[in-house]
Write a structure and sequence with these properties.
Strand order of the largest sheet: 1-2-3-4-6-8-11
Strand content: 15-25%
Helix content: 40-55%
Distance between the termini: 43 Å
Bound molecules: ligand LCMDX3IU
């Protein structure tokens, strides 16, 4: 968080516009952030409303917004651009697809690949978490569909979660159902929202909660009809932005810094831990079985 705060105060918006081709239009228009990365297929659509200072980031990686290495890299770059843009104070994170917010980490990135690939992938997951959980912006998740595991983590990184009131949509950290283990920083993020007891039970059982259940345990803050998710997110954002930035940001930092520092201090060890865990034959088998089941369920 401290690192982001430094970035924000030292990088003038003019520099950002020059470096990243941000096109600014009239007051009422939306800006489109175009990524110049050659491998980018624009899996993330970002629209910044200059007059409100609110960006809407829509995940758009078919079919289910799974978090691949490419997706995560594009996500982190997009987030960093917004973070250093002084014209942007708030971020609404949502999905371009009805019914799916994000399917979590892309399981194919964790199966049958090299140790180097796993290390690069895990670093990208860490970076996504560090940037989103440590953001100085007001962040609101507009959860318009199901959101297992890494998708739930993304929502949990935000300051406030609004979910579509549909019992068919589920959210939670279901890692144990795949035979894998949520790392300590996933666990800490959840504890900070719902407390130790609920987190322990959720993680052991790999529990997925329907939207009403998630609201009941405090995993999501507000349930609204599906067609009201975006407008409610905008309204809640206005409330949050009425608080002076410096006071809100310092408070957020005070609450989250210990959790963030814990990973920062052992980032390399966490990568090594992930690689040695995911390369075990038994874990590879579990993931393959889970993936095959997913593909066969139709
Ligand atoms: C002690 C030391 C510990 C150290 C730490 C070690 C390890 C930690 C490791 C990892 C942590 C991982 C966290 C994760 O995020 S794991 C991912 C968990 N995600 C899931 O379980 C979601 C699975 N998907 C679903 O439940 C459904 O797909 C979903 C509800 C999202 C959507 O359902 P729908 O019916 O609409 O769509 P499907 O037909 O099921 O899927 C379409 C298509 O997409 C493929 N797919 C779905 N999810 C994923 C995914 N996460 N990754 C890759 N691919 C996915 C699915 O297979 C279908 O493919 P196809 O049949 O069309 O080819």
């Amino acid at each position: 968080m401290a690192a982001l705060a430094v970035l924000r105060s030292s990088a003038p918006a003019r520099l950002l516009s020059g470096s990243f081709s941000v096109h600014r239009g009239g007051l009422a228009s939306w800006q489109h952030y175009q990524s110049r990365r050659p491998f980018s297929n624009n899996k993330i659509l970002v629209e910044l409303n200059e007059s409100t200072g609110v960006a809407v980031m829509k995940m758009k990686s078919p079919p289910v917004n799974s978090l691949s290495l490419d997706f995560l890299t594009e996500f982190s770059i997009s987030l960093e651009k917004l973070e250093i843009d002084r014209g942007c104070r708030g971020l609404i994170l949502t999905s371009a697809f009805p019914k799916i917010f994000s399917a979590g980490l892309d399981i194919t990135e964790m199966c049958g690949k090299s140790a180097e690939h796993y290390a690069a992938f895990w670093k990208a997951v860490q970076e996504m978490w560090l940037k989103l959980y440590g953001s100085n912006m007001v962040t609101i998740a507009a959860v318009n569909g199901s959101s297992p595991a890494g998708g739930c983590l993304m929502a949990m990184c935000c300051d406030y979660r609004i979910m579509a009131d549909n019992p068919k949509f589920a959210i939670g950290l279901n890692e144990t159902q795949l035979g894998i283990v949520a790392p300590f920083w996933f666990k800490d993020t959840m504890i900070n929202i719902v407390g130790n007891r609920v987190t322990e039970q959720s993680l052991q059982l790999g529990q997925m909660y329907s939207a009403p259940e998630a609201h009941k345990i405090g995993l999501v803050d507000l349930l609204v009809p599906e067609d009201k998710v975006q407008s409610t997110a905008a309204a809640v954002m206005t409330q949050w932005l009425s608080i002076p930035d410096h006071a809100r940001q310092l408070t957020k930092s005070m609450m989250r810094k210990p959790t963030i520092d814990r990973l920062v201090k052992q980032q390399e060890a966490d990568i090594n831990n992930f690689v040695s865990f995911i390369t075990r034959d038994s874990i590879q088998k579990s993931l393959q079985v889970y993936l095959d089941r997913l593909k066969q369920k139709k």
